[in-house]
């Protein structure tokens, strides 16, 4: 699995954990007692903070991905022959490996 796929999977899992925790809080509001209410308030604050952090992480990942794509695009435009040569070399290697395995 590539790191971008792992990051996306992690973000989905974290978002699901936050949703599950919120649902648990909503369903447990019937409980009484000051200790419970204080714990609930702390958990709600933690969830809010976690959501903000996840949102910041998502923004950074999107920004870095766009920057990488722009850098790649610029490189390809500035070095079209070098890029074509690299692509041809990679294609040749893959062809040789596939041909060898048959």
Low-confidence stretches: none
Number of helical runs? 3
Strand content range: under 5%
Q: Which value, in Å, is the CA radius of gyration?
A: 24 Å
Pattern of helices and strands: HHH
**Overall mean pLDDT score?**
79
Determine the structural class based on helices, strands and strand pairing. Answer: mainly alpha
What is the first-to-last residue Cα distance?
Answer: 26 Å
Main sheet characteristics: none
- Give the overall shape, derived from the CA principal axes: elongated
Question: Key features?
Answer:
single chain, mainly alpha, elongated, 102 residues, 3 helices
Write up this protein:
The structure is a single chain. The protein has helices spanning 3-27, 34-78, 80-101. The chain is built from 3 helices and no strands. The protein is elongated, with a radius of gyration of 24 Å. Helices cover 90% and strands 0% of the residues. It has 102 residues and is mainly alpha-helical.
């Amino acid at each position: 699995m590539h790191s971008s796929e792992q990051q996306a999977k992690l973000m989905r899992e974290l978002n699901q954990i936050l949703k599950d925790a919120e649902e648990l809080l909503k369903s447990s509001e019937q409980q009484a007692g000051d200790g419970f209410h204080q714990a609930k308030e702390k958990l709600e604050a933690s969830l809010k903070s976690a959501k903000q952090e996840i949102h910041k992480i998502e923004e950074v990942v999107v920004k870095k991905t766009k920057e990488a794509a722009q850098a790649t695009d610029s490189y390809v435009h500035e070095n079209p022959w070098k890029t074509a040569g690299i692509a041809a070399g990679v294609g040749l290697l893959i062809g040789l490996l596939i041909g060898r395995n048959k």
